[in-house]
């Protein structure tokens, strides 16, 4: 029988392949992606992001991320910004998890420099890149302006972010462009990923663009050309992800 | 000393699309078949249940559904004068790991190649003359014809429940279908998918531009369907989590939804997961495979003896195994001699993003919901004045509107800040994109071999990819992009962002998982690795499946042709099993 054979090697996740999931393991996996919640001792589903102690970031790093992401996605007449959407918490939890550790990346040396077409060739994980780069950006701010990034006025903050984007700031081993691209990519993820991951709070990102969330059946609606789709926003963990993250649902 | 397992008649390396077909066919023929898969077992329930799988961050962005490069990757460079460096995380293509292979997370865009594609060298010489073919190009006939493959395309389409409108039944053109397609024996098993707002826009605009649009063939079931194996599929719900995800609705054709319910019940079939095959073993003559060696999840090396070996591990993995096992002569780019690793090709794509006023609700989509034109594919148009070889389709696919990776922004839009918020707000529901999907020919300078420096977790050299787009491909792709722009221009009140494929090939942005070649099929053992039945020229009890056997790549997604070739090869294997030996004499 086939099944018996397939059971061989049970008990060890094959790091090369995706692991089996189910609704229950999904919920667990969100928690796994948010190890902090357990570490904080308030139960695996307690994750109210408001002023939650960061897991990976130091308080100063979190302050930097708060300030930088709020410039990348500001509060304006189209709605709240990165801070209101919980993006610092999202990035913090991502860096504390498998992504932060580059768990699925090939990280064996040697590490020569490559050309753009060869892609990422740094020996640092995303978590290390953030730590190192934030430290250097802050040193740059102190040297240029005598204060940390978060205390610069918005125009100066924007100037510095543009300079990072163009690769005009020296961050040692880490090209400024690489750090900026990673920060901006993770910021967008925090705004547009399922709120189950602690960002996109109150569906901020999805409300901005009009994406209703993971719904499953559009057989009837797909033929209603030109009409807005008006069902309520929904997450993988229901209509009220904040309550879910607080452990109330 | 490696542990030795009990011998089996046939061992399959990998348990994805091609392995599932071969297993089903050969177990029907009465032999004992074992599939060895490096990834996990997975099935519709629980792995692809909609409340689990519809997670863009986890599956598409962090790429948890695909191969993890951590253990095994490849190195890449554009040309032989550069040092190839490891692909440290996935980008340009997304190979699979796990039962069902990439069949789990493909789109289901299920095409037939054109009859001329299989005889491209002969056809090109006849129509344009020998001199039309660049010196550096390895343009090759396949050794099999469209007419020979037609019944096998038909089998794959009926296995999958492909939805579409036929364009040519028995040589008679059919209204509403693709007027350029090769003659088919009968229509598709299912009518086309529903139209969505954006495919309707495309259809109208393409007609206005003077082209012949049709619904693209989709292995997403437009209606409930029972396939010839008796397996039931459900109607696609246009959930939009299709490509890069598994289907929770039994609607996208995959090994799980079309074959496994029957195959897994058979007494003469078994499979083992978490088994990474590292070698095909041969006897001391080197002319006979004795089985394979694999490493299990605990790091144990295990020998699996078998009477016959079939490589079903996906394009580049098949080639890697051939090179590691020293089967066939490796290609040497300096002399042009040797065959294993030669003829690597890919796909060249571009797009024209369209910004218009009507609400399109892009999130209501399916992996293969598209409207296309084939006026500029293959040799459907006169290449004489254009001077390049090849072509491709132009289509508007509405595969979904997943917010992180599937939003379009106008040219020169602000990249962040309040300006970015505004363009996201203004365009997400109304923007769409027209894609071009072009052929890539094979060249002396594009190939696969073993890397001298980097190794995988098993201590083996990584595969090394040397590849770049050539002037022929850029000229062809630019031409296709110009035609796509004409369609975009026929959409009322719209602006466009034309995204040509400029410059060198890069491993960074996702393009397609349509890696081809490296173990080309053909009639001549000096330019091919396997014969027209996908049987190794060197080791007759070894067969190689999948797009690795394409001598060059056509302007379509590969899997329709991969499926047809697999059924075709399965017939030949049945003959081989009765009467072992080379099916073609070299
Ligand atoms: C995101 C995506 C979208 C796609 N969309 C389309 C589409 O719309 N249309 C189309 O025509 N094609 C599409 N494709 C391509 C299509 O999925 C493949 O052509 C098809 O699955 C190939 O079948 P295969 O059997 O060769 O490989 P696979 O189905 O990938 O199976 C190979 C299996 O072998 C296993 N394996 C590899 N190496 C080893 C080893 N050493 N030991 C043991 N096991 C091993 C892998 O884990 C995998 O499970 C898409 C692919 C991807 C990734
Ligand atoms: S779009 Fe259709 S075929 Fe694709 S995953 Fe959703 S239900 Fe399945």
From TrEMBL, chain A:
<feature type="compositionally biased region" description="Basic and acidic residues">
    <location>
        <begin position="1"/>
        <end position="10"/>
    </location>
</feature>
<feature type="compositionally biased region" description="Basic residues">
    <location>
        <begin position="11"/>
        <end position="24"/>
    </location>
</feature>
<dbReference type="InterPro" id="IPR027056">
    <property type="entry name" value="Gluconate_2DH_su3"/>
</dbReference>
<dbReference type="InterPro" id="IPR006311">
    <property type="entry name" value="TAT_signal"/>
</dbReference>
<feature type="region of interest" description="Disordered">
    <location>
        <begin position="1"/>
        <end position="24"/>
    </location>
</feature>
<protein>
    <submittedName>
        <fullName>Twin-arginine translocation pathway signal</fullName>
    </submittedName>
</protein>
<dbReference type="Pfam" id="PF13618">
    <property type="entry name" value="Gluconate_2-dh3"/>
</dbReference>
TrEMBL record, chain B:
<dbReference type="GO" id="GO:0016614">
    <property type="term" value="F:oxidoreductase activity, acting on CH-OH group of donors"/>
</dbReference>
<dbReference type="GO" id="GO:0050660">
    <property type="term" value="F:flavin adenine dinucleotide binding"/>
</dbReference>
<feature type="domain" description="Glucose-methanol-choline oxidoreductase C-terminal">
    <location>
        <begin position="444"/>
        <end position="565"/>
    </location>
</feature>
<dbReference type="Pfam" id="PF00732">
    <property type="entry name" value="GMC_oxred_N"/>
</dbReference>
<feature type="domain" description="Glucose-methanol-choline oxidoreductase N-terminal">
    <location>
        <begin position="232"/>
        <end position="344"/>
    </location>
</feature>
<dbReference type="InterPro" id="IPR036188">
    <property type="entry name" value="FAD/NAD-bd_sf"/>
</dbReference>
<comment type="similarity">
    <text>Belongs to the GMC oxidoreductase family.</text>
</comment>
<dbReference type="InterPro" id="IPR000172">
    <property type="entry name" value="GMC_OxRdtase_N"/>
</dbReference>
<keyword id="KW-0274">FAD</keyword>
<keyword id="KW-0560">Oxidoreductase</keyword>
<keyword id="KW-0285">Flavoprotein</keyword>
<protein>
    <submittedName>
        <fullName>Gluconate dehydrogenase</fullName>
    </submittedName>
</protein>
<dbReference type="Pfam" id="PF05199">
    <property type="entry name" value="GMC_oxred_C"/>
</dbReference>
<dbReference type="InterPro" id="IPR007867">
    <property type="entry name" value="GMC_OxRtase_C"/>
</dbReference>
């Amino acid at each position: 029988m086939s099944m018996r054979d397939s059971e061989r090697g049970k008990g060890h996740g094959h790091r090369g392949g995706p692991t089996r999931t189910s609704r229950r393991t999904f919920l667990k996996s969100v928690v796994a992606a948010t190890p902090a919640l357990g570490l904080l001792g308030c139960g695996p589903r307690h994750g109210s992001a408001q002023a939650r102690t960061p897991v990976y970031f130091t308080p100063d790093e979190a302050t930097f991320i708060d300030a930088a992401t709020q410039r990348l996605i500001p509060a304006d007449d189209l709605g709240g910004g990165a801070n209101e959407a919980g993006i610092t918490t999202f990035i913090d939890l991502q860096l504390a998890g498998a992504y932060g550790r580059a768990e699925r990346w090939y990280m064996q040396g040697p590490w020569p420099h490559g050309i753009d077409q060869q892609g990422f060739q740094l020996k640092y994980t995303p978590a290390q890149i953030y730590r190192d780069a934030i430290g250097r950006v802050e040193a740059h701010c102190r040297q240029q302006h005598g204060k940390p990034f978060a205390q610069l006025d918005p125009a100066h903050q924007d100037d510095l972010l543009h300079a990072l984007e163009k690769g005009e700031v020296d961050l040692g081993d880490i090209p400024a462009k690489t750090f900026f691209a990673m920060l901006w990519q993770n910021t967008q993820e925090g705004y547009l990923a399922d709120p189950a991951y602690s960002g996109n709070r109150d569906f901020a990102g999805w409300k901005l663009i009009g994406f209703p969330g993971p719904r499953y059946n559009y057989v009837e609606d797909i033929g209603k050309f030109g009409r807005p789709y008006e069902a309520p926003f929904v997450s993988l963990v229901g209509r009220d992800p904040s309550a879910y993250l607080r452990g109330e649902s | 000393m490696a542990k030795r397992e009990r011998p089996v008649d046939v061992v399959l390396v990998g348990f994805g699309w091609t392995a599932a077909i071969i297993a089903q066919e050969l177990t029907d023929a009465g032999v004992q078949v074992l599939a060895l898969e490096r990834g996990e077992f997975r099935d519709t329930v629980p792995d692809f249940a909609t409340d689990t799988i519809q997670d863009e961050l986890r599956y598409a962005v962090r790429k948890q559904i695909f191969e993890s490069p951590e253990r095994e990757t490849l190195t890449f460079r554009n040309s032989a004068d550069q040092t190839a460096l490891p692909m440290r995380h996935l980008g340009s293509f997304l190979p699979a790991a796990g039962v069902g292979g990439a069949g789990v997370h493909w789109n289901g865009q299920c095409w037939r190649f054109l009859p001329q594609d299989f005889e491209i060298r002969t056809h090109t010489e006849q129509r344009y003359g020998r001199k039309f073919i660049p010196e550096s190009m390895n343009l090759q006939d396949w050794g099999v014809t469209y007419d020979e493959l037609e019944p096998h395309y038909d089998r794959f389409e009926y296995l999958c429940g492909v939805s579409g409108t036929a364009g040519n039944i028995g040589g008679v053109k059919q209204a509403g279908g693709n007027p350029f397609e090769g003659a088919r024996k009968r229509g598709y098993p299912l009518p086309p998918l529903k139209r969505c707002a954006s495919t309707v826009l495309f259809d109208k605009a393409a007609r206005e531009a003077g082209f012949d649009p049709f619904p693209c063939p989709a292995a997403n079931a437009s209606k409930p369907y029972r396939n010839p194996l008796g397996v039931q599929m459900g109607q696609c719900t246009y959930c939009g989590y299709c490509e890069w995800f598994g289907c929770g609705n039994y609607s996208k054709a995959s090994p799980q939804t079309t074959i496994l319910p029957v195959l897994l019940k058979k007494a003469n079939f078994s499979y083992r997961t978490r088994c990474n095959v590292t070698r095909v073993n041969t006897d001391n003559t080197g002319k006979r495979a004795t089985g394979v060696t694999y490493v299990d999840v605990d790091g144990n090396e295990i020998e699996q003896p078998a009477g016959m070996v079939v490589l079903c591990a996906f394009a580049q993995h098949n080639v890697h195994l051939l090179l590691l096992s020293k089967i066939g002569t490796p290609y040497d780019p300096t002399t042009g001699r040797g065959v294993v690793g030669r003829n690597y090709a890919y796909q060249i794509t571009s797009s024209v993003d369209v910004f218009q006023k009507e609400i399109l609700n892009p999130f209501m989509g399916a992996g293969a919901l598209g409207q296309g034109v084939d006026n500029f594919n293959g040799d459907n148009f006169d290449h004489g004045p254009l001077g390049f070889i090849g072509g491709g389709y132009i289509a508007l696919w509405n595969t979904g509107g997943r917010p992180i990776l599937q939003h379009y922004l106008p040219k020169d839009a602000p990249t962040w800040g309040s300006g970015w918020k505004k363009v996201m707000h203004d365009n997400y529901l109304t923007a769409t994109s027209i894609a071009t999907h072009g052929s890539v020919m094979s060249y002396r300078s594009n190939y696969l071999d073993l890397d001298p420096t980097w190794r995988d977790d098993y201590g083996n050299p990584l595969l090394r990819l040397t590849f770049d787009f050539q002037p022929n491909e850029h000229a062809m792709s630019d031409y296709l992009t110009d035609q796509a722009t004409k369609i975009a221009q026929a959409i009322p009140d719209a602006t466009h962002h034309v995204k040509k494929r400029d410059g060198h090939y890069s491993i960074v942005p996702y393009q397609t998982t349509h890696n081809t070649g490296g173990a080309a099929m053909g009639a001549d053992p000096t330019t091919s690795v396997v014969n027209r039945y996908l049987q190794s020229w060197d080791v007759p009890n070894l067969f190689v499946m999948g797009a690795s056997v394409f001598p060059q790549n056509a302007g379509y997604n590969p899997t329709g042709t991969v499926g047809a070739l697999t059924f075709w090869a399965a017939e030949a294997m049945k003959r081989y099993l009765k009467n072992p030996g080379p099916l073609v004499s070299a």
